[in-house]
Amino acid sequence: MATWFVRSVLPRSVFVTRSVLASNHQLKGRLYGLAAGIRPVVQEPPTTEKDKVLSDPLKHPDFFHVSELFTLKDLFDARVHHGHKRGCRHRLMEPYLFGCRLEQDIIDLDQSILHLQKALNFTAHCAYRKGIILFIGRARQFSHLIETTAQESGEYAHTRYWQGGLLTNAPVQYGTGVRLPDLIVFINTLNNVFEQHVVVRDAAKMNIPTVGIVDSNCNPSLITYPIPGNDDTPSAVKLYCKLFKMTILRAKDKRRQMDLLYGHQKELPEPST
């Protein structure tokens, strides 16, 4: 009985397996032949000069050369590596810390310089595309500095008490057709030592990109481009404001040069003497 089963069933199964493999091989080749035969020809739309103005900066990793605006020594001299006490540490900031000495956290400047370059590069692209940039800081001792930085950059600042709903309920607060900021820059993301600024949450709800200085006691999870660094020392805050102002002005100057190059902006005549 077993011999008859092997002789009768096994050849059939082998024949079925061979036939399936042969059909799959034929079908596989046929499918490849059909796919190669009906492959559509994709024609790219012609690029205009205006498209080149917006697309050319995206082809370079550092189109505005923000990496040359500062060095690691500048961050060290400005005391950007100084964090808070170990007891105030936020658990999500542990990957950005170099260590702890005398119960004071030390921020890793190697990571700070990389994140700062990414944040400045994104800020430059927003300014280059004529986006609205809003500076926010709640510390009273830096209010004048932040407002001056925004004014000299041609942007906006808010350093007072933030009324709830200014972003999430903007059509009711201001009326229809209001334009929200394209980027929000946080010089410090906290209202006090433990309370996070309400704009961090509202900007995440409204899908507005954010750039923020996050100290060792901050929560970086809702910040699009977090920058690990000290947000309390005056020298560090002055360095941040200086870098953001230089980046925005450089991007706007580059946009004017590109507009003149491609003829989108007429050069103003020189005043007659």
Protein described:
- This protein has 273 residues and is an alpha/beta fold.
- Helices cover 45% and strands 12% of the residues.
- It is built from eight helices and eight strands; from the N terminus they run αααβββαβαβαβαββα.
- The chain has helices spanning 2-37, 49-55, 72-77, 109-128, 143-153, 170-174, 198-205, 234-262; strands at 82-85, 97-101, 104-107, 133-136, 156-158, 183-186, 210-214, 225-228.
- Helix 4 (109-128) packs parallel to helix 8 (234-262) and helix 5 runs parallel beside helix 8.
- The protein is globular, with a radius of gyration of 29 Å.
- The N and C termini lie far apart (117 Å).
- Mean pLDDT is 83; it is low at 1-37 and 267-273.
In terms of per-residue confidence, which ranges show pLDDT below 50 for 5 or more consecutive residues?
1-37, 267-273
Portion in strands: 5-15%
Number of helices: 8
- Determine the mean pLDDT: 83
Helix and strand string, N-terminal first? HHHEEEHEHEHEHEEH
Helicity, as a percent range: 40-55%
Q: Shape, please?
A: globular
> Mind describing the biggest β-sheet?
5 strands, parallel
Ends: how far apart? 117 Å
How large, in whole angstroms, is the Cα Rg? 29 Å
Summarize the topology.
Blueprint: H1 2-37, H2 49-55, H3 72-77, E1 82-85, E2 97-101, E3 104-107, H4 109-128, E4 133-136, H5 143-153, E5 156-158, H6 170-174, E6 183-186, H7 198-205, E7 210-214, E8 225-228, H8 234-262
Parallel strand pairs: 4-5, 4-6, 6-7, 7-8
Antiparallel strand pairs: 1-3, 2-3
Helix pairs in contact: 4-8, 5-8
